[in-house]
Amino acid sequence: MSIMGKILTTAAVAGALMTGTAQAENLRIALVAKALGIGFFEAANKGAQEAATELGDVEIIYTGSTDTTAEGQIEVINSLIAQRVDAIAISANDTDALVPTLKKAMQRGITVISWDSGVAPAGRQMQLNPSSAPLIGNTIIKLAADHLPPEGGEVAVLSATTTSTNQNTWIAEMNKVAGDYPNVKVVGTVYGDDLADKSYREAQGLMQTYPNLRAIIAPTSVGIVAAAQAVTDAGKIGEVNVTGLGLPSEMAGHVKSGASKSFAIWNPIDLGYSATMAAYHLAKGDAKAEPGATIPIGRMGEITLDENTEAAMADPFVYDAGNIDQFSSIF
Amino acid sequence: MSLLKSRETILALAILALLAAIASRFPGFVAPRNLARVLTDTSPLILLALGQMAVILTKCIDLSVAANLALCGMVAALMNGAGVPLPLILLAVVLLGAALGAVNGLLVWRLGIPSIVVTLGTMTIYRGSIFLMTGGAWINAHQMSDAFKAFPRTVVLGLPVMAWIGLAGIAAMALLLTRTPLGRAFHAVGGNPHAAVYTGISVGRTQCAAFVLSGALAGLTGYLWVARYAVAYVDIAAGFELDVVAACVIGGIAIAGGAGTVAGAVMGALFLGIIKNALPVVGISPFWQMAISGSAILLAIAFNAASRRDPGRIILKQAEHRT
User: Fold this and answer.
1) Residue A317, strand partner residues
2) What's the pLDDT tens digit per position in A193-202?
3) Which residue of A113, A180, A317, B214 shows the fewest CB atoms closer than 10 Å?
4) Tell me, what's the ipTM?
5) Domain total in chain B
6) B229 vs A196: CB contact, 8 Å cut-off?
């Protein structure tokens, strides 16, 4: 090997070493998805990258198992511990099964938070929920109120089953704040049992029973699609607005047809962004994960931890004709 | 007198009484336009009940109809997404449905496994296949072509195509059961399998034919269902097989096989369809709805059982007198 070659090799090695040091100064945050290849988590990664760019000294390691199992995630976490990452932000496939492995990570000084789907308190420092029941309850009635005529109008709720805990909680929270929206007259709640045909029939029934109905709130992804189709078939687009909670990919057609002016669901990009921000501040040590603590999460404002060290990110994100195309390909 | 005693007449009167009761609370329900809407809405149930009737006549039961419907519906939606023209899709779903029915039929015929076990198994397999095909993803309204969604809704002579298909199904089935050797074989095989064998009818082959018929109807209904509700996913029509069996039972199709009419099955389906469509508008608490549907079914069965018991008793009494 010539002298020139030796010099070049040395330079290359030195260069590599220097890059290594530069990386070590960067905070390495691992964003662990339930499984790779799911649009929702790919979008969360997009948000995490956005947070990394904003923060500057952060490197995101986006990873996850190939299937949605706890075993797969345990392997991933073990490899992250071996890589000595600074923080792990995980959406868990199992509340309890991951606790021992995540405890091990915390013992090695790694910051561990869960987001979206949580881990039991023993296995993480905090849990970031996309939203909370009061915020969801408020959002769904606000969405209906936004598109009512000025003099107000009748609004009905199309729920899942009579025993669905989530929907019942959201509707109860909605009724609590109904006084803040005087133009909304809630006339009743019907149950479509999360079956397309029953939801469709119930929506038809609502339009027959209340000829002056102006909006249907369906806080369930099956119900909102069925109600939108029923409104379309009844020729009442523009008269009855369907809103509630749904997925952009499922609602795209109905938003374009005008059957639904807007609806809501969490925004995975914001969620990935916020999880990264929270993990960053905890790992840096400029925020503590304890009940009552507030953690800044960049453009999303800040979150406050409750007694279970859980926090709600924000109101559900509103989707309408303006942004539906951007998100319908994501999830 | 015999007309009054026939189960079909009594069921028809029950339907009229039901309509009158609903009309007293919500007069708009019996408007011709709304009744046409109810008929359209009930067409899938009618089609499936007709197929199920053929199966029950032969002493079998087909619990896989709803899963078959969901699988064929998903295939229809996927074919539509691939740009296949509608007539080809219709042909394909009927053939696929018939093939899925034939799987049931062959297992019952060739392996002699009880139909309730076979169809419980295939029910899960068919649902599982949808998951394998799609990975659990939905096919939504904007992913279906307008022609695909419009066909069942197109109004011809005052009724949507969906209702016409239901009516055509009724006519074809009535013709098949009363005017063809196969239709009479359904009755014969269920009524007295041994006698059927002596007359040269293959019991297994006839049962298999009934499953194929039921499957083909489920396949066709799969397309109608997906096009009507403009969405296809793994769980569509979950639990619908029970409605179908209930419609047959209410319609007086003997669960032990051999007895039943097209009119009975159709009216059984209509009875359930009217209840399903009326409950949302008559303002009955949703907590009571399931109890009401269940009671209607029990009442119908109790009535059937009672009307069937009488002749037996009379014969015994006569026998007692003679001794």
Assistant:
1) A265
2) 888 899 999 9
3) A180
4) 0.77
5) 1
6) yes
